[in-house]
Fold this protein.
Amino acid sequence: MLLRVILAINDNVTRKRIRQILRNTDVSVDVLKGRKDVWARALTKGGDVLLIDQDAVEDAIQRGVEIDPSLLTMPAVVAISDYQPPAKQAELIASGCEGTLHADLPEQTLREALLAILEKRQAFVDASVLRRPMATPQLSDFVSESPTMQAFMDTVLRVVQSSTSLLILGETGTGKERLARAIHAESPRAEGPFVAVNCGALPESLLESELFGHEEGAFTGATRARRGSFELAHGGTIFLDEIGDMPLHLQVKLLRVLQEYEVQRVGGEQPFAVDVRIMAASNRDLARQVEEKQFRQDLYYRLSVVTLEVPPLRERKEDIPALAGSYIGFHQMRIGCEVYDIDAKAVEALVQYAWPGNVRELINVIERAMLLCRTDTITLADLPVGIQGFVPPQGGGISIPRDPAQVPSAWLARPLRELRDSMLADLERVYLAAMLCETNGKIDRTAERAGIDPRSLFDKMKQYGLAKEDFRPKKSKGD
């Protein structure tokens, strides 16, 4: 993450000297002139380190404690002075200073001291602000028994060590973000942060600030400066999910980052350099969006230097048995189930299923089966009815056998409540998929016809791995 240093030093010579020392380091430098409300102004600028004249330190720190007693938001304070007797130096440290530095130190000594302070603060900020996942995905996690997936992973391995921008395409649930995290974890940037932003989950009014940050007073409610995701990702990787949902005017700003590796905060006057690798993902047809003027062509070409299209699960069914086994191992400790295997009939049913929700759906199915399983092995009866081989027709309802002798034995092996809930889930998923097809993926119209609230429809679509983009009409190449 890019640190922000605030200089509250009145002496021009000392201030210029320190700015020169910090010129080629990974920090952004702001200058505060005057001694009034130094701490409050440093906070509004989002400072991490405050270099301040010695005689203003105590007042600034006291004012800071009054404004914000949280250690996570207080900048590290370093006193700069012409002379510091030992007693005064000890007093400054006791009052809360990170360190004290003599303004007339030799160039190299002053540089080393400043860099040591910045390195310590960088480690503190990274640990406090950046939230890393408990388990980091690895490329070895991507099971690849099928020729399709093996060819795909061969391409992935060729681009891991570069800093080239990547465009990751694929259907909902194929694991695009997990792949991006795995690439980052095995790249030269692995020690840096991985910051993910879902461009489709944030309102347009907030997305710009989320990506690029903002200065204090940039808009109503901006009472303090805020880092954007590009600053947080400095030295690492930023992952822009659902990039196809990004508004056109923000696409222009993103293009500048890709071309110049510079970011300008909302309300900021000057851009500053960032060092990030950009990975973007979408389940949309971005080439089609370019043709329809919904996505900038120049940005598309910049992002798609290397395009990785993750194969859907139905195109690599050879991987399903190994994936099922690996997810059993993954869930064992997490949910505390003593389930260790899956029988042959259940595996066959998994292989025959179409998997509209891809790997994400398979993970959920295995977790559900483990929770319902009465032995240490998942059987066909533990799987959802739709995967067992029962497929609701496209007509006017679920087909229920009239002859009790024709009722599947898998139904009778389960309690009524469990079977009913499973069949209801299958009914909802198939019904909503069919309705979305009828409306070409239009949420409001689908919700109206189904007689449910649009918010409830969104929740159910997320539950069943359904994406509105998958139900929009496909244009032929000749259109």
Observations:
- The chain has four domains: 3-129, 139-311, 313-383, 398-411+418-479.
- The chain has a mean pLDDT of 80.
